[in-house]
Every structure is written in structure tokens, then in C-alpha cells.
């Protein structure tokens, strides 16, 4: 990952958190865990977790509906040379890590 991609990813992660805080109805806790900068900055994949777990599908549908609004939010709040196409998905790796932590605590 280049320095630019790292800085852009950190900025986009902060913006995503701010956007979710403003736009969500707060029935679940949505936490952005990672931002993957792809195609030389043209695409950004946001991975997130949701609590409680039963709200994951609802949260994913909400985030997918808000993609264009979030892209406009990025345009208004940054000076990135390329505004990426954004997409969202559940961070399954983080879920698995948490599950392994829970299992190891029980041993």
C-alpha cells in the first residue's frame, strides 16, 4: 500500500464513521473496520461490523442504499484528486477473529 493509499484510507474511514453517525437510525452499532483502496484509488471497499449480529443484513442494505450519498459526502469534505466509487460489505474476517477470541477465552 502506498503512502497516498494509506492516508486516503484513514481519511475515508473517518468520514465513513462521521457519515454513519449522522445518517443511521442507531438501532444497531455500525463500525467501519477497514477500507480497501483498489484500482489505484478509483474504488474504495468499506468493511464494517454490526452489533447486534441479527441486524447485519439490514445494515448492509442501508449502507448499499447510501453509497451515492456517501460519495457526495466525500466530495464535499475532502480534496482527494480522485473520488472513489464506494462499496460496503460485512467484515467477515473480523467476525471470525472475534469468534476465535471467544473460543480461546473459554479454554
- Named at the architecture level, the CATH assignment is 2-Layer Sandwich
* Number of helices, counting only DSSP H or I runs of 4 residues or more: 4
Name the shape in a single word. globular
Fourth-tier CATH superfamily name: K homology (KH) domain
Number of domains: 1
Helix/strand order: HEEHHEH
Textual characterization of the structure:
The chain has 107 residues and is α+β, with helices and mostly antiparallel strands. It has a single domain, classed as K homology (KH) domain (GMP Synthetase, Chain A, domain 3), CATH 3.30.300. It is 53% helix and 23% strand. Helix 1 crosses helix 3. The longest helix has 21 residues.
What features would you highlight for this structure?
107 residues, GMP Synthetase, Chain A, domain 3, alpha+beta, single chain, three-stranded mixed β-sheet, 4 helices, globular
Summarize the structure.
The protein has 107 residues and is α+β, with helices and mostly antiparallel strands.
Blueprint of the fold:
Layout: H1 3-23, E1 29-38, E2 43-51, H2 56-65, H3 67-77, E3 85-90, H4 92-106
Helix pairs in contact: 1-3
Amino acid at each position: 500500500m502506498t503512502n497516498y493509499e494509506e492516508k486516503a484510507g484513514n481519511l475515508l474511514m473517518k468520514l465513513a464513521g462521521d457519515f454513519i453517525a449522522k445518517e443511521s437510525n442507531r438501532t444497531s452499532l455500525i463500525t467501519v473496520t477497514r477500507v480497501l483502496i483498489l484500482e489505484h484509488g478509483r474504488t474504495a471497499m468499506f468493511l464494517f461490523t454490526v452489533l447486534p449480529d441479527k441486524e447485519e443484513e439490514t445494515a448492509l442494505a442501508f449502507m448499499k442504499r447510501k453509497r451515492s450519498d456517501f460519495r457526495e459526502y466525500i466530495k464535499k469534505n475532502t480534496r482527494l484528486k480522485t473520488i472513489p466509487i464506494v462499496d460496503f460489505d460485512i467484515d467477515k474476517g473480523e467476525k471470525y477473529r472475534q469468534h476465535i477470541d471467544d473460543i480461546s477465552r473459554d479454554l
